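re: ur msg from earlier - yeah i can do the DQA complex, just paste it... oh wait u already did. ok heres what im feeding in:
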Amino acid sequence: MAASSHRVLVLHGPNLDRLGLREPAVYGTMTLDALNERIEAYGAARGLAVECFQTNSQGALIDAIHRAAGFDGLVVNPAGYTHTSVALHDALLSVPTPSIEVHLSNLYARESFRHTSVTAAACSGVIMGLGPASYELALEYLLSNFTTNDAEPDHV
Ligand code: DQA
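and the outut:
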């Protein structure tokens, strides 16, 4: 396995600490700890150093997004704040780190208030509806991006 040269921060927003107990028909039965283990193992197998963090507080999520400036990539599930938070949108725009928004569920198959993401436009892309694989595919994208950038020759 390659040495962990790239660092990725994975952020989970409010109520995701209730995974496993919360609406299992929508979110499945995997706990947040199990999800984090799966994401970290997926990253480690590909030479990525993944750090996961969950908070129910919008301010702490904003602080964590600022901290992402020290990482090579950001994967963020803003959860309920997705649909409301201009402050999170602005925080995402305030850091140069490439960011992918992810959701476990397919927002378009759910209530209409979930059809709008205030935060998505501040991210490079969005992956949703694939359960834990949404996070893994986000890591996959970041990885391909790192590889392309690393391979690019310097231009004068
Ligand atoms: C979610 C979808 C949001 O609408 C919801 O508020 C969440 C989780 C998801 O991962 O599917 O908390 O972001």
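cool cool. The mean pLDDT is 94. ping me if u need the other ligands too
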